[in-house]
Amino acid sequence: MKADALAGEPGGNTWLAQLAGLRSADGTDVVFSLRDGEPATLTWLPGLDAVLGLPGATGKELCDRLTELLRPLTANLRRTPPGRDFELEQPHETGDGSRGRIRLRARTVGDRDRTTGLIGVASAVAESERSELAELADRYQVLVERSPDAICVHSGGVVTYANRAALDLFAARNAREVVSRPFAEFVAAESAAQLVDSPGTDPVEVVLRRLDGSEFVAETVSVRTSDGSTPSFQVVIRDSTVKHAAAAAVRAQEALVDHVSDAIVSVTGEGIVTGWNPAAETVYGWPAPEALGRRVHEVLGIDPYPASVRDAGGVADQTHRGRDGSPRSVRVSAAKTSDGYLLVCTDETARRRVEQHYATVVAALDEGVLVMGPTGLIQSANPAASRILGVPEAQLLGVPCTTLVLFDEDGTRIPDDELPSVRTRRTGVAFNGLVVRLRRPDGRDVWVSLTSRLLDPDDPNGVSVVTSFTDITERRAISARLAHEATHDPLTRLANRTLVLDRLDRRSATEATAVLFLDLDKFKLINDSLGHPVGDQVLRVAGERLRRATAPDDVVGRLGGDEFVVVTSATTGAARVRAFAAHLRSVLSEPVSVHGRQLHLDASMGIVLVEPGDRRSAEDLLRDADVAMYQAKSRGRGRFEFFDVALRERMQRRLRMEQDLRDAVHSGQLWPAYQPVVDLRTGEMVGVEALLRWTHPKHGAISPAEFIPLAEESELINVLGKFVLRDTTRELAAVRDARGVDLGLKVNLSVRQLDDPHLVPAVRDALATTGLPPGALTLEVTESALMRDTSAAAEVLAALRSLGVLLAIDDFGTGYSSLAQLRRLTLDTLKIDRSFVTGIAESRDAEAIVTSIIAMAHAVDLTVVAEGVETAEELALLRKLGCDQAQGYHLGRPLAAAELFQ
């Protein structure tokens, strides 16, 4: 608003003329004018400061004060037609702080129908001039300003006044934010028709809007205060939010009462039922219309004595009865009301039934259950807990849980502050399946599997702990026994292979160890000849002797059969281990008395010295000790050998050769060679001996002295025997047919072939397939093979003889056969071992032995063949001694059939 001097205004005389009817008679007033525009201009004549009681005030201060006083007249200025007169008294504060009043008389001015300004006169109203109506207006204004209801006035749709409550309701900081604004801005669109367009005198609920845009529900009364062409209304507004919230709360409470699962019953002081919610109908079976008005003991089946319940703390457990007479376990809460009592009855029948079932189940459990309270005292214990702990239930209750004495699996006592229940209470962490040893008051130890957890994990303040435990003493003993059986030999009770390997794997990396692998010599002979019970007894005695001959920390184990192992860290170094091995042999060699028989044992041993830092695995160590043991056996039994790298390489070569030999059978690497057998009387070749040869693709010719023993140990000898028999009978049959010669074929049989049940059928099939006459085939068996089991050998030889083939005893003189034994075996040929033939021309003893053999053989009609003839002198002497046939390098080396029969 711009302030200016009125005298300088153009057309000022015209304005003064219009004011003539507005000025007071005594001239104690000031003329002012307001021109509407942007900005509006407010002007006045001198003396305004005196009229307003603000002597010396600046023009801006006078402009602001006059503008505020004129606000009710200017709020709707543009909507008021020109020529309209107004009169208004306004209270105001003078410069000295006193209260005064200003009378404003004004007229709207403008062009035609448009109002462009306002002219008027402002005059001070003396105290004596105040009318009774003015006093009433002042009192009314104070009443309105202090009213708790919001009151505002709008004229022509524009707010001209708002009291303090209205400003607060509309979230305004001062009156200027509300006055002069359209009243419709404070009314929501859906309520405009009720309050703005067609206001009535009846209270209506409308939706109003605050300055910040938020809306609220209010109850309003709108009263028209003027009858002119520009209507004015006074609106009284009361916020309905609280009322609606209260009503909603009442409805919520009613819904709660209707929908809670607890029966809610209100009764008068005389016990008459006045309230009965749907849950009460469900719990007691009485419909509300029938329950209301009855005495409470009729519908509850008992007088709940609400006064007593309230006096006892407000809650009591009672047994009520339903309409059908069935009992109800009820927890009753009683509260005093203005006219009686309110009862809240919680039906706990199902819960208490579950609790009873739970208590019965817990009491019947074989698992002990203890509940420790917040202070660590035992609050409850089931019978199983009393039985396992060895303490009567009455003596357990109220006892601190720390009285339980527990040990871990290592035998260390668990401290009181580390007991599972204490740790669970302290940390909330559960323990499941913890295995501990429990010491009972009677001194007996019980192994239990224990679980400890919070009684109520969902309760953040829950500190009660439930501990359950199962007696696993017997199960643990069974497990220990099974574990012992799984790691010990059932016959000797010594460690088995699994335990030996485990101890070797867990050996100290910083100390030396010795591994001794023992195999009992000739145990198979004892087992086969005297029976398995005797053999088992011998094994038990051997195991016990080894155990007693070793240190307590040594490991003595039986790996199976007659194989034992000793692992020691107490005896190390080659010299000491050698003495230890000799001691073990001497202990084992003591006579064993079994069923009245005196048996003598010996053992072959392989020894591995394990130095600190040795990276070989347990399996490697046993393998190397086994290799050394076989080396000892191969060198004559009853001795021990130390393992070294060269021995390992030889055994590895042996393993490779065994695999290569298996492949050689099917890959054409094996072939038969034939050595001539000459009749010493005629000098003619009368037969050939088939000898197996092996041409290795990498190593060339492999000596039979190397691969034949390998074949016998690996069970390949039967396969090789069938191969030789099949190929040689085929080749010799072809030579006989092609050349028309009568040549005999000699084929060696090993000791293992005699045990093969398929030997006789194989010979029969070979003869039938090739067409070789049975009499042309001589099967040679070593003397040692025949003497191993003469009865079994006789049976096999008789079956072969029935096929028509001839039989020979090979390497005669190296065994212990007698003339009577040779007679029982029905042999045809006797072959003198080369050890007697070599050097016979220079040795009179050798000559005498050969002479005796030839004489003995001729005495029982056996043909005598000397093998290994290397010189002409040997050949001449054999012919002189009467030997029938001979073979050897002097007479012919072994050759392939194609070369020999050129």
Describe the structure.
With 902 residues, this protein is of the alpha+beta class. The chain is 38% helix and 28% strand. The strands form seven sheets. Strands 30-31-33-34-35-36-37-38 form an eight-stranded mixed beta barrel, surrounded by four helices. The protein has a six-stranded mixed β-sheet with strand order 1-3-2-6-5-4, sandwiched between helices. A hairpin with a 3-residue loop joins strand 15 and strand 16. Helix 18 (523-530) runs antiparallel to helix 19 (532-548). Mean pLDDT is 85; it is low at 4-13.
Quote the distance from N terminus to C terminus: 150 Å
Principal-axes shape call = elongated
Low-pLDDT segments, ≥5 res:
4-13
Derived from helix and strand composition plus strand pairing, the structural class reads alpha+beta
Mean of residue pLDDT? 85
Number of strands: 38
Helix content: 25-40%
What is the count of helical runs?
33
Beta-strand content: 25-35%
Question: Rg to the nearest angstrom?
Answer: 65 Å
Describe the largest sheet.
8 strands, mixed, barrel
With strands numbered from the N-terminus, the spatial order across the biggest sheet is 30-31-33-34-35-36-37-38
